[in-house]
Amino acid sequence: MFFEESQLLKGLPSQFFATLVQKVNQKIAAGNDVINLGQGNPDQPTFDYIVKALQKEAAKPQNHKYSQFRGMHSLKQAAADFYQKHYQVKLDPEKEIAILGGSKIGLVELPWALMNTGENLLLPDPGYPDYLSGVALGKVNYSTFPLKKENNFLPDYAEIPAADAQKAKFIYLNYPNNPTGAVVNREFWAETVAFAQKYQLGVVSDFAYGALGFEGYKNPSFLQAPGAKEVGVEFYTFSKTFNMAGWRIAFAAGNASMIEAINLIQDHLFVSVFPAIQAAGVTALTAADEEKEVARLVAIYEERRNAFIKAAAQIGWKAFVPGGTFYAWMPVPEGYTSESFADICLEKANVAVAPGRGFGARGDGYVRIGLLVSPARLIEAVERIGKLNLFEK
Length: 393
Ligand SMILES: Cc1ncc(COP(=O)(O)O)c(C=O)c1O
Fold this sequence. Notes:
single chain, 393 residues, alpha/beta, Aspartate Aminotransferase, domain 1, Aspartate Aminotransferase, domain 2, 15 helices, binds pyridoxal-5'-phosphate, Transaminase, Aminotransferase_I/II_large, transferase
């Protein structure tokens, strides 16, 4: 018997990067030495002190039972303390924090939990593709606002058409930004709160790369802006700060009514995260080594960024220098689209890059480079691309 997918599933956006992954895997299977810069998966292991905590917690029988609904209080308290310590933001652990099995699920379920069919969302272009999965599952509409190079890939609120802002119920923002590597300052978050108040819309700050700022830059949290909790929430994931992408753990923090809606939908979908992972999450956030380990990780990415940008400049490939994240957003040469350039890099240079088109129409002049291999491999990748002679020096 063949069972047809529901209309809801059929309405989901196609997974743009699935074909890229297939092509890369075919190349590797054929014996080629492919340098894969197309992904966003942290390559370093989870910090040792966190792995050790999980080993201990996994052995405790009380952690083998169902988790408490809505997650463990100790983790919510640790998340609140973490925000107090790093951002001087005070949060009520029970009312203003929700535990999530990764921030992806929170970002995708938010429209479902807080919007009605046909209501509108404002999304960045380029942006993290999974926001559109939330649009489809929530059966909501969306309009985009451009992140332009001339504005350092920040939105220009004055340029967002009033009609789009008026009808929007929420805006999604992501700084440090995937895919561009752009970062923002505290004034930007203050402007964001003013924009939200003016149009009475909610803010969803995706702070996935919050810990990753270069040259000593400490990325500000949206929640640091006065009035932020009145208008929105922030998603914080363990995936990038602590190299815990496979563990699936994150939290949302901020506006109590939004947190309650997120908790409520989760009551119906999940019984929260494996308790041992939550307990190890407490250790991740509170251990004495936390800051030292994160600083070590940031230094690794910064060394890679510098090596890549320098090598790229030598072949005439000019970068927008990322202020954070582990990505570089690179323009494609004259005469290429993001896909045709990604294809030639893979075919002729055995280098996989992510075509910008996968992040939205405005991504088309770019490819995203994941700084997730060693400086030597990054330099080799640039040299291979340099041999194609596509850039003017
Ligand atoms: C911008 C952005 N937001 C959210 C996520 C999801 O992170 P996770 O579900 O691992 O918390 C990612 C992952 O790559 C991301 O790049």
